[in-house]
Amino acid sequence: MLSLCTLWLALGPSLAFAGSPGVVLFLADDLGYGDLGCFGHPSSRTPHLDRLAASGRRFSDFYSASSVCSPSRAALLTGRYPTRSGIFPGVFNPSSKGGLPLNETTIAELLKQQGYVTAMVGKWHLGYGLNGTYLPIHQGFDEFLGVPYSHDQGPCQNLTCFPPDTKCYGKCDQGVVLLPLVKNNKVVQQPVNFPKLTPMYNYFARDFILRAAKKQKPFFLYYASHHTHYPQFASADFTRKSERGPLGDALMEFDGSVGQIMKALRDAGVENNTFVFFTSDNGPELMRRSRGGNAGLLKCGKGTTYEGGMREPAIAYWPGQITPGLTHELASTLDILPTIASLTGAKLPHIKLDGYDMSDILFNNRKSKRDTMFYYPISPSKKLGVFAVRYRQYKAHYYTQGSTHSDSTPDHACHWDSLLSFHNPPLLFDLEADPSENYPLSSFDIPNYSWIIEEIKKKKLLFELGMEFGESQIERGDDPNLEPCIKPGCTPWPACCIKTE
Prior knowledge:
Layout: H1 4-11, H2 13-16, E1 22-28, H3 47-55, E2 57-63, H4 69-78, H5 82-85, H6 107-112, E3 117-123, E4 143-147, E5 181-183, E6 186-189, H7 197-214, E7 219-224, H8 246-267, E8 274-280, H9 307-310, E9 311-317, E10 325-327, E11 331-332, H10 336-344, H11 359-363, E12 372-375, E13 388-391, E14 394-400, E15 421-430, H12 450-465
Parallel strand pairs: 1-7, 1-8, 2-10, 2-11, 3-4, 3-7
Antiparallel strand pairs: 2-9, 4-5, 5-6, 8-9, 12-13, 13-14, 14-15
Helix pairs in contact: 7-8
């Protein structure tokens, strides 16, 4: 008799199960390549993620499609470079008029067509809009509990540590509404009680999984944590528990959430029929020094097109299906949507996708369908095009530029005053030999590498010819009246947007 694994390999993931698999997608915030214990950090305590890495497939060469929040999240959910969706330049504000266009197809909308129940918990950051037009419940999610943007985009003096009289470091943005907690499309708490937020998220996620399993419904859970974005916070169970300080506490709490959700899968009896994927939206905000995360051996961090800005830790887990181990194959957040479509039998949308099905990497130990990655800056333009291209093990930088997000490192190339520079010939690196991008091949050995530069040039030209920039949703502007408020129309604005007991 054929084993289940043999049957899987013979028939493919979309045919091997009569029941559709559950899907859980974990997304960390500003987590660097070197921040997890299983990726080499000496003092991070991440036992649950380490366990997933040991029992699943760990990626060494996995990329986000952007080095800042909003565009990276749009790419993950749509399988398309954010330039196509108009999610540029930069990120959405609380008062942004735009958001992820409603005609874009998200993973949740794809799975809804397959009879899935869908939920999102945590940080959205793809627009709020008039009366919550762009919230997750309008983008394929049945349920949502979370904050619609980054927790530093509002007065976060309420972002207290434990005990309550201890203030977290930093004051964040002032002059906007206090940070709201939204359930579906309604503000239910303002300001957010951050020390108690993650336990609330964990309860919501666990309850969603158990309800779906009880009804024998396939489910999709997107858990987009606020951790480890600056300023860090944690509940009483995790504050002052890490050797890494506040960032370590926040990371421990996120890891604890992973543990609770994995326990919910086991309690519901569905762990063996659930595809779990973990990664981060972009690299660490190095300007915060030890409070900003760690890119490991990679160059620079958030806001740049160097490896530290867009190369992320990633783990895929499915007991009995995904063979444990490390893959060096090239993959991206862009590939998550087509992979989930393949696993669930969902039909891909009839639009241009930039992702590839990762099933060969996950289940068959074969080569990746992806051999190229394109790096756009946080303010992309048709005129300049992509800043860098990775083809196989080689990466060519046509433009380089530092970022305020990556200030305070010893490497001046990362800093804000490292201005836009054009490189002809491009700076060429062998990322297998030099993942830190310290030694450009083109500076001393260009004749031997002219063939690879020509090949990358062809890839770049073909890609840019096929890139259609969507209308910028962020440049649509801002209207303070759009900021989410628990008491719409109240005065004095915005201080009145607070729930009084």
